[in-house]
């Protein structure tokens, strides 16, 4: 069985993946069990979960359509111009 500090390190390392739902069922269950038994890791989890909720609720400004249009035009112009030093042909 893993030492507690190793479980804490693993849990904290995988916390974002856990919150994003990117782990396997077995990994999620392992972390869930650890959080049930480890108050410092649970506090870190609660903080990150609350922070994500605040960001989701507070950071919802619409990007102005004029900015989107300028970005799209810049991307289109960049795609139409071959990058310098691309090696597309010999330099003379």
Write a concise keyword list for the protein shown above.
4 helices; 92 residues; 0% strand; Arc Repressor Mutant, subunit A; mainly alpha
Question: Could you write a compact summary of the structure shown?
Answer:
With 92 residues, this protein is an all-alpha fold. 71% of the residues lie in helices and 0% in strands. The longest helix is centred in the middle third of the chain and has 20 residues, at 39-58.
Quickly count the helices: 4
Overall body shape: elongated
CATH topology tier name: Arc Repressor Mutant, subunit A
The span between the termini is: 66 Å
Mean pLDDT: 86
What portion of residues belong to β-strands?
under 5%
Count of domain modules: 1
Unreliable sequence segments:
none
Biggest beta sheet attributes = none
What would CATH call the architecture?
Orthogonal Bundle
Helix content: over 70%
- Under CATH at level 1, the class stands as Mainly Alpha
Total beta strands: 0
Radius of gyration, in angstroms, nearest whole number = 23 Å
The H-and-E topology, N to C, reads as HHHH
Q: What structural class do the secondary elements suggest?
A: mainly alpha
Please characterize this protein's 3D structure:
This protein is an all-alpha fold and 92 residues long. It has a single domain, classed as Arc Repressor Mutant, subunit A. Helix content is 71%, strand content 0%. The chain is built from four helices and no strands. The longest helix is centred in the middle third of the chain and has 20 residues, at 39-58. The mean pLDDT is 86.
